[in-house]
Specification:
Length: 350
């Protein structure tokens, strides 16, 4: 089952997809079951593969994180930058089942772009770049009892205390990711995805991607998408605070600019978490301004409807580092007005 077939299968399971992003599941036609483990397909994410004996050496010169910290049992966040230090893509990287290989989970619309951007460097190494999104299909699992459910379905033993830990089975690569509750990304072989989904669905509620994205917002994990490609440096998405940049690994593309921002100054913009009331759900890349100005004050990185509040959403916004956000702001996009209130992040921006 490839990605297109997987989407068709989900539609047969009453999944409804967003008009903004055709791979984002907006809802399932099933009743809400409070307190149950929740599952959601991660079709909007894709897998970029780097396979071959020189893969670690190649990646070390291209990404912000230290590839030598990767073991079969862990994963790391990181980014690929332009020579000017702007992010072409962001990802979570973990070892592939093959020897001397890595899988980078990123937004689906950036996989081919990343392959094209890195190909000119990879020709000097014994490594093959590819789009593995049809080989590995993702499911997010979270909530009470999720460890037991994942362990049962995939036949593994999980250690819920360690964020970023990787657990492997014959059918899947399972990653514990940050959140207010236990949360796992399960990257399942395409040949096993339907069986795994059905087994998970027997005991869990099928949920929209927005509930998963709300957890991402609360965890302060921003990522690059096609509409924000090359717009931000890593510090603008707080990557130095989520262990996504190594400052002692040596050179990589864009390293000089990233290091200069860290050691000799500060980023002019940074990402904060907000609650916004009023107006429709904001799309990634939307630029917001104040009512009396056309100057962009904030850019949307990720947004999701607040689960228990009508006409309200949570969002990660990149704002000016000098902007006073302690007081509520009125922000505009087109004819829509939003009251924006800053919310805490799980890490300190100072």
């Amino acid at each position: 089952m490839n990605k297109v077939e997987w989407q068709a299968y989900l539609q047969s399971q009453q999944a409804k997809f967003s008009d903004q992003d055709k791979l984002v599941v907006e809802s399932f036609d099933s009743p809400r079951q409070s307190g149950k483990t929740q599952i959601t397909p991660l079709l909007y994410q894709g897998i970029f593969s780097v396979i071959g004996p020189d893969s670690a050496k190649f990646l070390q010169g291209q990404i912000t994180c230290d590839i030598h910290r990767i073991t079969p049992d862990n994963s790391i966040l990181g980014a690929v930058c332009t020579p000017q230090g702007r992010m072409l893509t962001s990802f979570r990287v973990f070892q592939a089942p093959e020897q001397s290989g890595y899988l980078l989970r990123m937004r689906h619309d950036l996989v081919d772009h990343t392959q094209e951007a890195l190909h000119k460097y990879s020709v000097f190494f014994k490594t093959d770049l590819g789009n593995a999104s049809d080989s590995w299909l993702g499911v997010g699992v979270w909530g009470d009892g999720c460890e037991q459910l994942v362990s049962q379905v995939f036949g593994v033993t999980l250690s819920p205390e360690e964020t970023a830990q990787v657990t492997r089975s014959e059918a899947a690569i399972i990653i514990r990711v940050p959140g207010n509750t236990s949360r796992y990304e399960c990257w399942v072989k395409s040949t096993d995805i339907a069986t795994a989904w059905e087994a998970l669905s027997e005991q869990a509620e099928r949920a929209s991607n927005y509930r998963w994205l709300q957890q991402e917002v609360e965890a302060g994990i921003g990522e690059v998408s096609l509409v924000t490609e090359s717009d931000f440096n890593p510090h603008m998405l707080n990557f130095q605070l989520v262990d996504a940049i190594s400052f002692d690994k040596g050179c990589y593309t864009g390293q000089e600019i990233v290091a200069r921002t860290h050691y000799r100054g500060k980023s002019k913009r940074l990402m904060k978490r907000f609650s916004l009331s009023g107006g429709p759900l904001l799309a990634t890349g939307t630029e917001l301004h104040q009512p009396d100005s056309d100057k962009t004050l904030a850019t949307v990185i990720c947004s999701a409807p607040s689960e228990n509040e009508n006409n309200c959403q949570q969002a990660l916004l990149v704002v000016s580092a000098d902007q006073d956000t302690e007081q509520a702001l009125t922000l505009c996009s087109g004819d829509s007005h939003y009251q924006a209130t800053e919310l805490p992040l799980p890490y300190n921006l100072e």
